[in-house]
Write a structure and sequence with these properties.
The protein has 20 helices and 5 strands. The protein has a 3-stranded mixed β-sheet. Helix 4 packs antiparallel against helix 5, helix 9 packs antiparallel against helix 10 and helix 14 packs across helix 20. The C terminus is likely disordered.
């Protein structure tokens, strides 16, 4: 199952694969091309295959391999251990093969480093056009160029065909991308940043309100509250764009819209606070909130971010594949915006309070799955009887509802590949319940409630019987959950009766 539960399976791929030419002595064992793996890594992999295949002069091939390794060391620095080319690997009865191994934790740390350092560089460039160029180059050189280079390796005909056809991201790709972002803690990071943005904006608005209500009619405060609500809607749009739609382009649109909403709010406050209220009615001031064109240029701290976001929206084509590197750039631009607004509001949020280490979480999930698979093999009969007794003790309506989930069997292979975790499963059932509504939705909600109760009881029972060690309730319950996915169907005797 490896150290990185489901990361390889969920990681975005380019819409092409490496194929071993006919008549080759050595196979390419790694054929999928993963987005954001540096092009030079694939280049070295292919060069080493060509060397062992005898496709180049030996001295020339070794020289090219050495140059590629040196360039990778220079480009990756401390992250040069993110990959390893293995082989040829001998296997009895089949052709030997080459294999490319990716250290996903190191790759992701490298992508984080690249995104963060790029934004830090842009922050300290006084010339705004040069700052924008830094971001444009980041997109072109690190996301678009790598794809084009791989297309050229695949051959001119394939490249022209793929470039000519408009590629769309499939629903399955989108769901895998969202699932990956959740597992890596990236969605939590965006949620945390958005909540900070909301907090900072509310604090600014509250301070303005306190100044207004002391010398202006109540309508001014009411109008300001309405303007605040409008500005907050755009901030909530950032969350929705990422968490629900996995659309970075849409996320940028809402960042820009929220900045414009903030400027309208600020202009409105300044107008009614500085002008003679009697000679400048509130109705006239309120038009500021609904201006078609609003300028962010006067806000020196926000305008560089606004200019960069606008550049991405208007000048950079959305790539035909999902990219973690692209997401991380978005996250750091959002964080830049958040920090600037917090500085205006006088809010301080230490960086270390956000996010989490995803690898510890994945390690716990992985260990629980492995243990559940092992218990299901070595204690199958005991576990089935135990689950059956727990299910039999449920109220009749809960037992009937649980029979539905028992039919949604998850295979060992699916679990071991990390394609389904407890959180994935629960979210899928909740989403289905929401879509079904009515009786069907209520039944699924009740089934999930019953499953959770059985999980807790099973965890305690397994610890009491010595099958799982005591001391870690969370781990015991996770193991019990995966055991239920593997054995619940066998444990429920009575099939669902069709009307």
């Amino acid at each position: 199952m490896g150290r990185f539960l489901g990361i390889r399976e969920l990681f975005p791929r380019y819409p092409l694969q490496l194929v071993t030419p006919p008549g080759s002595k050595i196979r390419l064992g790694t054929r999928d091309l993963y987005v954001d793996v540096p092009f030079l890594v694939y280049r070295l992999y292919i060069l080493q295959w060509e060397y062992h295949e005898g496709r180049r002069n030996r001295e020339e091939a070794l020289e090219l391999i050495e140059k590629a390794k040196n360039r990778l060391k220079e480009e990756l620095g401390d992250y040069a251990n993110m990959y390893r080319v293995m082989g040829p690997i001998e296997v009895e009865g089949v052709k030997p093969y080459m294999k490319l191994v990716i250290r996903w934790d190191r790759l992701l740390e490298y992508l984080e480093y690249k995104a963060e350092t790029t934004i830090e560089k842009a922050k300290h460039i006084a010339d705004r056009s040069k700052a924008i160029n830094t971001i444009r180059e980041y997109y072109i050189e690190n996301i678009i160029h790598d794809y084009v280079k791989l297309l050229l390796i695949s051959g001119q005909n394939t490249a022209m065909k793929l470039l000519a056809e408009p590629l769309t991201k499939s629903e399955n790709e989108r769901e895998n991308y969202k699932k990956l972002l959740v597992r890596l803690g990236e969605i939590d990071e965006v949620e945390w940043l958005v909540s900070r943005l909301e907090k900072a904006l509310k604090k600014l608005a509250e301070s303005w309100m306190e100044k207004l209500v002391s010398h202006l009619p109540e309508e001014a405060g009411t109008a300001l509250s309405l303007a605040l609500s409008n500005a907050l809607m755009s901030i909530k749009g950032i969350r929705r764009a990422i968490e629900e739609n996995a659309s970075i382009h849409e996320g940028y649109l809402y960042i820009r819209r929220s900045m414009e909403g903030f400027v309208r709010l600020l202009n409105f406050y300044k107008y009614i606070n500085n002008k003679n209220y009697i000679s400048n009615p509130l109705k006239e001031a309120s038009k500021i909130l609904y201006e078609e064109n609003v300028s962010v240029k006067n806000l020196q701290s926000l305008y560089p971010i606004y200019a960069i976001v606008s550049e991405i929206i208007h000048k950079i084509t959305e790539p035909p594949f999902y990219s973690i590197l692209e997401f991380k750039l978005f996250k750091h631009i959002l964080e830049w915006y958040v920090k600037e607004l917090e500085a205006m509001a006088g809010v301080n949020n230490p960086r270390e309070t956000g996010g989490r280490d995803p690898w510890n979480t994945l390690a716990c999930e992985q260990k629980a799955i492995e243990n559940a698979v092992s218990i299901a093999r070595s204690h199958h009969s005991r576990v089935v009887e135990l689950i059956r007794s727990l299910v039999d003790n449920l109220p009749g309506v809960e037992k009937e509802a649980l029979e539905i989930l028992a039919k949604l069997k998850i295979s060992q292979k699916t679990l071991r590949r990390g394609l389904v975790t407890e959180k994935d499963y629960n979210e899928s059932i909740n989403r289905a319940a929401t879509l079904l509504k009515g009786y069907g939705g209520l039944t699924l909600t009740l089934a999930l409630y019953a499953l959770n109760n059985v999980k807790e009881e099973l965890a305690r029972a397994l610890q009491n019987k010595g099958i799982i060690r005591r001391g870690d309730e969370e781990y015991a319950e996770k193991t019990a959950f995966y055991l239920l996915l593997l054995t619940l169907e066998n444990a429920i005797e009575t099939p669902i009766q069709k009307p």
